């Protein structure tokens, strides 16, 4: 299990006074500040966050130690992480993306289909991007109860019932 969960990303500077444009990946986007201080993936930088206003696709935010537009621009693309123990517990049928990435995917007969490479969401439902075993291409599998009846984080596997012809 990963100790850090990605909860947001910096999209660049907002204005000239060191504010950043912040994208939140939390269920309730405004909750991102509640999990502060947030750190970079390598843990070398840590920031307190104050949301100042809503903007298109996120928030304008003040981050500790960021005082200029240049400092804010230098952080563009930086993903922000919170320790797992600061995040809420999830119901049985919900998962943090970080927990799904890397799990082995098997079909209902037990044959290995591949490994979860990423979890994507383009609006309708989450999709598991699966690196198919022995192939260079990836396959997108809807992350629904019909297509993915079993997720067993403890044993590191997912049982999938993909639509015919997907693999």
3D structure, described in words:
This protein is mainly beta and 167 residues long. The chain is elongated and about 60 Å long. The model has no long low-confidence stretch (mean pLDDT 91). The strands form 3 sheets. Strands 11-10-9-8-13-12 form a 6-stranded mixed beta sheet, with no helix packed on it. Strands 5-6-2-1-7 form a 5-stranded antiparallel beta sheet. The two termini are 28 Å apart. It has helices spanning 69-74, 97-100; strands at residues 4-13, 20-24, 38-39, 46-47, 49-55, 58-63, 79-83, 104-107, 112-121, 126-132, 138-142, 150-152, 157-160.
Summarize the structure.
The chain is mostly beta strands and 167 residues long. 6% of the residues lie in helices and 42% in strands.
The averaged pLDDT comes out at 91
> Measured on Cα atoms, how large is the radius of gyration?
18 Å
Structural class: mainly beta
- Percent strand: 35-45%
Distance between the first and last residues' Cα: 28 Å
Shape: elongated
The helix/strand order is EEEEEEHEHEEEEEE
Task: Give the % helix.
Answer: under 10%
Unreliable parts: none
Q: Main sheet, how many strands, which sense, barrel?
A: 6 strands, mixed
Number of strands: 13
- Largest sheet: spatial strand order: 11-10-9-8-13-12
Helix count, DSSP H or I runs of 4 or more residues: 2
């Amino acid at each position: 299990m990963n100790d850090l969960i990605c909860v947001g990303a910096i999209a660049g500077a907002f204005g000239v006074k060191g504010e950043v444009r912040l994208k939140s990946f939390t269920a309730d986007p405004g909750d991102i500040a509640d999990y502060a201080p947030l750190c970079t993936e390598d843990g070398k930088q840590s920031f307190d966050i104050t949301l100042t206003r809503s903007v298109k696709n996120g928030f304008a935010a003040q981050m500790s130690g960021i005082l200029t537009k240049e400092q804010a621009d230098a952080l563009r693309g930086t993903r922000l992480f919170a320790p797992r123990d600061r995040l809420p517990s999830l119901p049985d049928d919900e998962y943090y993306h970080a927990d799904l990435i890397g799990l082995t995917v098997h079909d209902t007969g037990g044959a290995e289909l591949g490994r979860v490479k990423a979890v994507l969401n383009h609006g309708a439902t989450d999709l598991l991007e699966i690196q198919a075993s022995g192939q260079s291409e990836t396959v997108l599998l809807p992350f629904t109860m019909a297509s993915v009846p079993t997720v067993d984080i403890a044993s590191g596997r997912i049982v999938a019932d993909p639509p015919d012809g997907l693999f």
